[in-house]
């Protein structure tokens, strides 16, 4: 009986930690396309989202119990990392790519830089099992969660079953990530008629639509596709991108087009984190493109921008920052759950 009330106690705490009066778990912003994710097989509930949030921040998912999802996906940097170019994992190991941002995932059909994962419910398996990231097996994760004093209660609150399963673990993580909707930047406010661009931002927006929007399509500022964007092959990583998955030479050096939302805070940039500043990225596209057979057709002709136009384009990109999203308490570390559990 004592164990039952412990489970119930933590379930209530986790639920109350996520809910904010009047805020829906998921919504489709006005004029946005319908999501790609099929919610019928994993309908969102406050309890499941709260469980997913707790799992996201708990290093129990890793072999040495030191690395959590949030270790490489910090809310304050648009759910990526900024302190190093490549992801870091257990035993101070270094990964092979920069951690992508976790934003508006319900509208994505492929995940990872090379599109290796086709469903969000399976995406978390990749970092959990990667030897240089979490280095763990889902079966062992389930065992650790089941033996903890915290999780059987959270699973019971979420799924009406205190038995932890791999399927429920992955679906709960998906539920939390599905709530990570960023749609309240200055750009969004301008589109809704609630704000106005400065003259510099307006000119930058015109330049963006002319030079960048074919790949970074509004309103998601991505197109869900893979492109070779003319980066020079790194002699150390030798990363061929999408071709590793399809084995098609035509996909050599192609990587998933990332969203530009919150790009002000999601540095370093590119799949290998080679650029630290947005100015470096703009310089690449206006003078650093490397020709190769699979180079994107959109980059076959040089993008010509003078110094003033580069500044204007940068000014527009800064309007894609959504500070409400970056500091939303619903997405933050569940201090009241994990710290309380650790004190028991």
Provide a descriptive summary of the structure in words.
The chain is mainly alpha-helical and 344 residues long. It is built from 15 helices and two strands. The chain has helices at residues 2-18, 46-57, 69-72, 120-123, 125-129, 138-147, 151-159, 166-178, 186-191, 199-211, 243-246, 278-287, 307-318, 323-326, 335-343, and strands at residues 226-227, 255-256. It has a two-stranded antiparallel sheet. Helix 1 (2-18) crosses helix 7 (151-159), helix 2 (46-57) runs antiparallel to helix 7 (151-159) and helix 2 packs across helix 8 (166-178). It is globular and about 60 Å long. The chain starts with a helix and ends with a helix. 41% of the residues are buried. Residues 1-9 and 12-22 have low confidence and may be disordered.
Protein topology:
Elements: H1 2-18, H2 46-57, H3 69-72, H4 120-123, H5 125-129, H6 138-147, H7 151-159, H8 166-178, H9 186-191, H10 199-211, E1 226-227, H11 243-246, E2 255-256, H12 278-287, H13 307-318, H14 323-326, H15 335-343
Antiparallel strand pairs: 1-2
Helix pairs in contact: 1-2, 1-7, 2-7, 2-8, 10-13
């Amino acid at each position: 009986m004592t164990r039952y009330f412990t489970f119930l106690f933590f379930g209530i705490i986790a639920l109350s930690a996520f809910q904010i009066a009047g805020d829906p778990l998921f919504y489709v912003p006005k004029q946005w396309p319908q999501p790609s994710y099929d919610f019928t097989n994993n309908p969102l509930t406050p309890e499941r989202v709260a469980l997913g949030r707790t799992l996201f921040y708990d290093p129990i998912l890793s072999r040495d119990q030191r690395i959590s999802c949030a270790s490489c996906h910090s809310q304050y940097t648009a759910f990526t990392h900024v302190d190093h170019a490549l992801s870091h994992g257990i035993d101070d190991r270094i990964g092979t790519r920069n951690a992508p941002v976790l934003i508006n995932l319900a509208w994505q059909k492929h995940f990872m830089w090379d599109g290796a994962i086709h469903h969000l419910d399976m995406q978390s398996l990749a970092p959990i099992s990667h030897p240089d990231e979490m280095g763990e097996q889902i079966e062992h994760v389930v065992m650790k969660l089941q033996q903890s004093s915290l999780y059987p209660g959270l699973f019971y609150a979420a799924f009406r079953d205190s038995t932890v399963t791999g399927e429920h673990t992955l679906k709960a993580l998906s539920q939390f990530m599905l709530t990570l909707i960023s749609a309240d930047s200055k750009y969004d406010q301008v589109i809704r008629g609630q704000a106005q661009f400065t003259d510099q931002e307006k000119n930058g927006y015109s330049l963006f639509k002319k030079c960048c929007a074919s790949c970074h399509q509004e309103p998601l500022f991505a197109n869900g596709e893979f492109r070779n964007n003319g980066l020079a092959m790194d002699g150390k990583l030798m990363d061929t991108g999408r071709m590793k998955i399809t084995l098609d030479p035509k996909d050599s050096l192609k990587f998933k087009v990332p969203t530009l939302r919150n790009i002000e805070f999601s540095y370093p940039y590119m799949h290998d984190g080679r650029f630290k500043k947005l100015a470096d990225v703009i310089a690449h596209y206006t003078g650093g493109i490397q020709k190769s057979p699979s180079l994107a057709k959109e980059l076959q002709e040089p993008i010509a921008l003078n110094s003033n136009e580069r500044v204007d384009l940068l000014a527009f990109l800064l309007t894609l920052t959504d500070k409400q999203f970056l500091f939303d308490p619903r997405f933050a570390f569940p201090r009241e759950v994990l710290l309380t559990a650790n004190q028991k």
